[in-house]
Amino acid sequence: MASAFESQSGDTLPGRQRENAQSRSKPLREDGPAGNHHRDTMKTATRERHGERIERAVRWLTRHLDADIDLHRLAEEAALSPYHFHRVYRAHMGETVQQTLSRLRLHRAAGRLLEGSRAIAVIATEAGFGSVQAFNRAFRAAYGLPPAAFRGRRLVEFPALPSLNRQENTMYTVRIEHRASLPVVALAHQGDYQQIGLSFERLAAWAGGKGLLGPQTRSFGIYYDDPESVPARDLRSEACITAPTGFQAEGDYRPLQTPGGRCAVLEFTGPYAELHKAYAWLFGEWLPASGEEPGNAPAFEEYLNECSEVPPAMLRTAICIPLAD
């Protein structure tokens, strides 16, 4: 996810001070055979629990192949927060919900191709494709043959499941902290997270005129959607800076509170464009092994230094995932 401060103009908000180190807990760690056994047990139990929950969501999908994807219904079926369902699903299945649905629809289409003489255009529409050409390309990619050639086959092979091999071997340090909910002024951003810097520029210009910017100002991004599962144009986020309690915002700017409570916090060092690697590791590796569950609040980031003062490789971002109590 992009930060506030990588913009084409190069203008940035004033510096924010890092949290007092004493407010941070030590990294979770258990050494020795007993600790290893405990971690292995937690990891197995959590993966099994996630597997059972995701299976319920997949079962709902198989029974509603023609329905539009309902995130809240799927999250409810899986007993997971809708803010984090997509990431847990993708980490467990190795693909997005939409990709699972497309595979299942293609498999059904393959069966219907062999059932009779139903027109390929009709089958394409039933599979959710807007044109026969798009259906032909997707079907050939999955089955190795175009639909018309496939009709003569008697064996229906299910398209291969996505690989779950982990390509990112980087290990990060995660702390579980209690984060205070802070009053902020927020400007909603609709669209690609990599462009949220433009919203921060607007926020900075407005806040400067209100006397809100100073050495103690802290900056946050709140991110409601998984960018790997939601089209870029539909992504929802908030550009935020801290403000005095009771401050009266106006127009496009509104008062908001950052999520508070128990959070998994990963401090990432590097370009904002590479934050997705840390998110993938958090949800694919750390969360299943931790025994924790994501809470019912969105992910958020705090930006701990300025891109005008350090090179991209030294930018520090605190990625915060709210946890269930």
Provide tags for this entry:
single chain; 9 helices; Arc Repressor Mutant, subunit A; 8 strands; disordered N terminus; 8-stranded antiparallel sheet; 325 residues; Multidrug-efflux Transporter 1 Regulator Bmrr, Chain A; alpha+beta
> CATH class of the domain at 21-26 and 170-322, anyone?
Alpha Beta
The amount of helix comes to: 25-40%
Could you give the count of β-strands? 8
What amount of the residues lies in strands? Answer: 15-25%
Mean pLDDT figure? 80
Distance between the termini: 26 Å
Stretches where pLDDT is under 50 for at least 5 consecutive residues are 2-30
The CATH topology name of the domain at 21-26 and 170-322 reads Multidrug-efflux Transporter 1 Regulator Bmrr, Chain A
**Could you give me the name of the CATH homologous superfamily of the domain at 21-26 and 170-322?**
Regulatory factor, effector binding domain
Provide the CATH architecture of the domain at 21-26 and 170-322: Alpha-Beta Barrel
Please give the radius of gyration in angstroms. 23 Å
| Strand numbers in spatial order across the main sheet | 1-6-8-7-3-4-2-5
Tally of individual helices: 9
**Major sheet summary line:** 8 strands, antiparallel
What would you note in describing this structure?
The chain has 325 residues and is of the alpha+beta class. The chain is elongated and about 70 Å long. It has nine helices and eight strands. The N terminus is likely disordered. The chain has an eight-stranded antiparallel beta sheet, covered by helices on one side. Among the domains are: 159 residues, Multidrug-efflux Transporter 1 Regulator Bmrr, Chain A (Alpha-Beta Barrel), CATH 3.20.80.10; 53 residues, Orthogonal Bundle (Arc Repressor Mutant, subunit A).
